[in-house]
Amino acid sequence: MEDIKKNIEYLLLNIQNLHEKSFFSDNKAPKLVAVSKKQDDHKIDEAIACGHKFFGENRVQEAINRWQKRLDTYKDLELRLIGPLQTNKVKQALNLFDVIETIDREKIAIEIEKNLNEKIKTKSFYIQVNTGNEPQKSGVDPLEADTFINYCIKDLKLNIVGLMCIPPLSEEPSMHFVLLQKIANRNNLPELSMGMSSDYEDAIKFGATSVRIGSLLFGKRQA
Question: For residues 29 and 23, what is the distance between their CA atoms, to the nearest angstrom?
């Protein structure tokens, strides 16, 4: 059995310590986003009972099934979409998530813009950058990121606040975090979603404002 409370306390303390030793210690400590994908419901409820408020889901439909009632009960939770978004799921996503981290192509950005109104729940967006140019991964080419960011902000009027990346498994993650930070700095974007269970400590050293952690918090997920 995982001790969810103990795991959260350890992670928050470690995040705080790493942050205080980093070059970004004047900023707020990074948020711990609990990745609840395919985790048992009782683990999610235990995390909520411990007072944890930030959660990330990979798929819109799974998130609806898991979170709709919980969000009605717990009004102070923040739910983030951290997985790929399909155009036919945009309306549902905008009414469920507080933050969408995975704008990765023009088609999605345009579909979001079409559905913007005062009633939607999503208030801020991140652009996903494919820092390793991996063909199997979503994300904007780093060389095209500046143009795409400008298009989303200036032309589509989307509230882009940050960038997100998933480094290649076979490469040193730090160089990808540095690249993402440079792109964000050039475009005056304050938020960086980077770092997962295996590399969050490096991500914090390079300015992550949120880290997405699943297995270290909840244990192994369902297959």
Answer: 12
The alpha carbon of 65 is separated from its chain's Cα centroid by a whole number of angstroms, namely: 20
CA distances for 137 relative to 131, 142, 165, angstroms: 10, 13, 10
In a domain, 186, yes or no: yes
Residue 223 belongs to a domain = no
Summarised one tens digit per residue, pLDDT across range 72-121 is 999 999 999 999 999 999 999 999 999 999 999 999 999 999 999 999 99
Q: In total, how many domains does the chain have?
A: 1
186: left (phi over 0), alpha (psi -120 to 50) or beta: alpha
Q: Give yes or no for a contact between 104 and 126, defined as CB atoms under 8 angstroms apart.
A: no
8 A C-beta contact, residue 194 and residue 201: no
Q: How many helices (H) and strands (E) does the chain have?
A: 9, 8
* pTM check: above 0.85: yes
Q: Which of left, alpha, beta for 52 (phi over 0: left; psi -120 to 50: alpha)?
A: beta
* Residue 143 resides in a domain: yes
